Amino acid sequence: MVAPRKDALTKERIVLSLSMFAAGFTILATALHLLMPNMLRLHADGRSEKMEILDAWRGGVYAAAFGSSHVNDGFDPRTFDDELTAMQRRTPSINLGIEGGSQTEQRVLALEFVRHFSTGSEVGQKPCFVLLELNAGANLTLDHLVHPRTINIYDWDTTRFVFALSDDSFSPVRRYGRDAYALVAMGMHYSNVGMLSSYIFKPPINPETLQDEIANGRRGLHGLTGQNDRLSSETQAHLAVHPPVPKPQRLLPGNHRLLGELADASGNKNLHFIYFVMPMYSDLTEYPLFPATIETPHGVEPILSLARPDLYPQLFTPQYWHDGAHLSESGASLASRLLADQLRAWYQANHRTTACGG
Amino acid sequence: MLFVEPRFFLFIAIVLLVYWSLKTNNARKSFILCASFFFYGSWDWRFACMLAGLSAGDFFFALKMSGTDNPHLRRYYVISSLTMNLSVLGFFKYFHFFVGSAIALANTLHMNLSEPTIRIILPVGVSFFTFQSLSYTIDVYRREIPAVTSLRDYMMFASFFPQLVAGPIVRPKYFVPQMQEKRSVTLEEVKSALFLFLLGYIKKACIADNISPFVDKVFNHPASYSGLASINAVWLYAIQIFCDFSGYSDMAIAVAALLGFKLVLNFDAPYLAVTIQDFWRRWHISLSNWIRDYIYISLGGRSKKLWLTYRNLMLTMLTGGLWHGAAWTFVGWGGAHGAALVAHEECKRRLPVAPWQEPCRRIASWFLTLNFVCITWILFRASNFGVAWIMLRRYLLLDHGGPDTIPLWLAWLGPALLIVQYSMRRAQLQKRMCQLQLPTFAFAYGLIWSLAIALLPLGYRPFIYFQF
């Protein structure tokens, strides 16, 4: 038995020990991080089910809608495809919106989609769209900060993307709060919080969520029931006296950055990256007004908006809404038809080809 | 506030910083008292007030007891303390159990009664702190210890936050003397405490919490799972409950040690026990000692009449079962352990072992003890006797069960952890870690924390023993 040596506690020794602690932590964290397989594939309920749907349809879909629950509940691939039938050929699409989703989550999912986008034998004949929700929140919610949904995806690139989702027009609290969320999440990401356990004790996919989103050919649409009684005719009455007021919005550097990243990841597949704005029932009083187009690496593309009660009053009737923020399944059908109509009209007016391929 | 939550880390960092910066023992004790009530109040301030009231009551009764030699008065005060504590325990923990049982009995006698609509919230750790308070007043009554003369000191003993909500149950004769002098810690003790905390954290967060979803799945829908999955789930539950509870105890002992206080060992590798008696010397040691000293001994303990000894054993274990939870399944669990202790006594008496048989006996006895303990965990975990019966039939291979399964590789977790535990004990890992120079210790500590964090399940689950 070796007798313990004297372990004197000096300031230098404490600093050295803290540094050694940090070094030990960092070395193993780095090693684990490098050994970890694709982190987007680690379990994250909600997203894992969408990844399962994406895998099942890979190679069979040429368009996908990304975004938050507004898209998850509000984009119906069946109607969207039917409406686009007249535009060259029918484009099988898929709904990859996720409940509680954010710009960061739509970014990683869209990157995953375009990286593995396979243009089959019908190359050059199908229109290929990557539809991105412009008004999704920047980060996931605070409830999701310590959650695989957040931790698994907040690498340095995602964090930089969040930094680009604010500008000088933001209040300091909003701007730095947004950045701080991303930094904390990034810290947890590089510390591999929960990743090894997710890999070893892999939780199963939620069969009920999956079944709900693939039943009746929904292809990812989470169908909700209408009509919400709380959305009474009061707003309609208000509308009769006060027409909806547009509130001009600016595009953020991050919006352009995302398009650049997607273009780089997709190579020469000539995909069309289209931003669209999902509606809220409160748009009846004030609605966001974004620029009509955006410059993308593949040329000018439209910014489509469903948040236009002045143009689409029929969408803002309570029967199409599950609640103030989410469309019902019938509302999703109508919204998708309007979205496809806008898309088709813009391409026809601008004589642009939509076919994709290398 | 759970020990594995980030806010606890912030809390303990502030507590340690302030505590060690205070110069006098009185200031430190006052601060610990405030911190303890803040800790308990983070669940519900009303229960913190209740704890304060109970502590003040017990302090008063003990003080009165020590101030008189009149046996009747002394008896009166100790009974008052017992009544007060057991009433609180009975009301909060057993109200629904007794009322529900009475209604069920009445219904079988065709007397239609309905349960009152009152819903009682169980204060966290009520079984622990009432037992701890009882041990104080009983010890004063038995003249084993003098009464504490400072209300502040007694309240600190009764509410000491590291062990307040899930033990170890601290005995006053062990803890109160520690409070009399200003505490100090050596660097060796700090390293030992830090390592023990990490060990407890890994047991609770990285092992127990990761396997609990698999256990829950099977126990919640036992009919749809295969026999193999059910056996696997029982083994996993044995791991879960050990890692959950001993992990908490390790963290509690470590936090107390960082404040300079020593708490008793609560677990000593119970699954390596070679007899059921040995198991109870290793599992939840502070409770085993408590029920031995205050129930078994009070009932007469080991008597010359064999049947009296066995009766005392059964009654003690039935009470121990009921202490764990307000349900008949817990009573059944206690009864099964009581019966096993009686059977073990009988075996010892009737089947003496020759020296050459000893090694084989030890192995066979260890195997039987382990499986008996696992089987009785079924009663402990099952929501009712119906579920327990299904699981028991599966465990004994009397029923093949349904089509669902859980990953088969999890069955290796138990043997693997037993080997790890055995190896750690043989290698004296904790001692070796503490002998490392501080920077080397810190480096190894950082490495292990990095692994622990990667193994966290996301979403904290409360400690199993909090419900008791």
Characterization of the model:
The complex is a heterodimer of chains A (358) and B (468). Chain A contains 13 helices and eight strands. Chain A is of the alpha/beta class and 358 residues long. Chain A has a domain at 49-137 and 207-350: SGNH hydrolase (Rossmann fold). In chain A, strands 2-1-3-5-8-7 form a six-stranded mixed sheet, with helices on both faces. In chain A, strands 4-6 form a two-stranded parallel sheet. In chain A, strand 7 (293-296) and strand 8 form a beta hairpin. Chain B has 468 residues and is mainly alpha-helical. Chain B is 71% helix and 0% strand. Chain B has helices at 6-21, 25-41, 45-66, 71-108, 126-141, 151-159, 172-179, 187-220, 227-258, 276-282, 285-299, 306-324, 328-350, 358-381, 385-395, 413-427, 429-435, 438-454. The interface between A and B is medium-sized, with 35 and 30 residues.
Number of E strands of chain B:
0
Order of helix and strand elements from N to C terminus of chain A? HHEHHEHEHHHHHHEHEEEEH
Cα-to-Cα separation, first versus last residue of chain B: 17 Å
Q: What is the helix tally of chain B?
A: 18
Percent helix of chain A, as a range, is 40-55%
Low-confidence runs of at least 5 consecutive residues of chain B: none
Average pLDDT number of chain A = 86
Mean pLDDT of chain B: 88
In total, the number of domains of chain B comes to: 2
**What is the CATH superfamily classification of the domain at 49-137 and 207-350 in chain A?**
SGNH hydrolase
| Overall radius of gyration of chain B | 23 Å
Number of beta-strand segments of chain A: 8
| Secondary-structure class of chain B | mainly alpha
Percent helix of chain B, as a range, is over 70%
The name of the CATH topology of the domain at 49-137 and 207-350 in chain A is Rossmann fold
Q: Which chains make the largest contact?
A: A-B, 35 and 30 residues
Any idea of the CATH class of the domain at 49-137 and 207-350 in chain A?
Alpha Beta
By oligomeric state, this entry counts as: heterodimer
